[in-house]
From TrEMBL:
Keywords: 4Fe-4S, Coiled coil, DNA damage, DNA repair, DNA-binding, Endonuclease, Glycosidase, Hydrolase, Iron, Iron-sulfur, Lyase, Metal-binding, Nuclease. It catalyses: 2'-deoxyribonucleotide-(2'-deoxyribose 5'-phosphate)-2'-deoxyribonucleotide-DNA = a 3'-end 2'-deoxyribonucleotide-(2,3-dehydro-2,3-deoxyribose 5'-phosphate)-DNA + a 5'-end 5'-phospho-2'-deoxyribonucleoside-DNA + H(+). This is Endonuclease III. It comes from Bremerella cremea. It is an enzyme of class 4 (lyase). Residues 44-192 form the HhH-GPD domain. Residues 2-29 form a coiled coil. The gene is nth. The lineage of its organism: Bacteria, Pseudomonadati, Planctomycetota, Planctomycetia, Pirellulales. One of its GO terms (molecular function) is DNA binding. [4Fe-4S] cluster binds at C194, C201, C204, C210. Belongs to the Nth/MutY family.
Amino acid sequence: MIEDLAERKAQARRVVRQLKKDYADAECALNFDSPFQLLIATILSAQCTDVRVNIVTKDLFAKYPTAHDMAVAPVKTLEKMVQTTGFFRNKAKNIHAASQALVDDYDGEVPQDLAKLVELPGVGRKTANVVLGTAFGIPSGIVVDTHVGRLTRRLGLTEKADAVKVEEELMEVVPKKEWIDFSHRLIHHGRAVCNARKPKCEACHFLKFCPQEGVS
DNA sequence: ATCCCGAGGG
DNA sequence: CCCTCTGGAT
């Protein structure tokens, strides 16, 4: 257990250094042509692989490329188009309502502001941080999804379960200039090596400073 | 059976 | 804090 702040900072430096070594070219795996499309793709990515999101958004963005287009789309049509991403009724309702809100309040543009983004239907801190970081290059927070939460806990950077608390603790120990790439790289590592079910500890370059030394 | 780049509501 | 929404992948 790493409890001391200085100790967690030291651990964070090791993690950041190894992430840069292993995942130098971190990039968002979601396909998009605009901040609006990234926002929609990120809403759809809940409990769903990015590969499937990209399959769905290919047709979705061809038909409704902008907030103005999606705001006037029939919700039933949206439900059918996003059906295979799961939670499809909520997601269809949210992407429709969020598009309408963007048209009403921001002339169809995506605001570059965390508080305004989080007010949009279906947009929480995770989605807002993805859009601000990846579409606008603004490190307004650290994206904490299921991968980032799991890996930072395994690596001893936090012991919190709540995503907001995890983000707070990470922001204490990870330099701000690293925030955007930090999450992308952890997510890549979480998918490729340190996955939830059967982590490949024998192939993991982080093992030498991982407190788990093999999770069950 | 269990997890996937969550959010909203109770 | 908990629960619900949901299909796909393994």
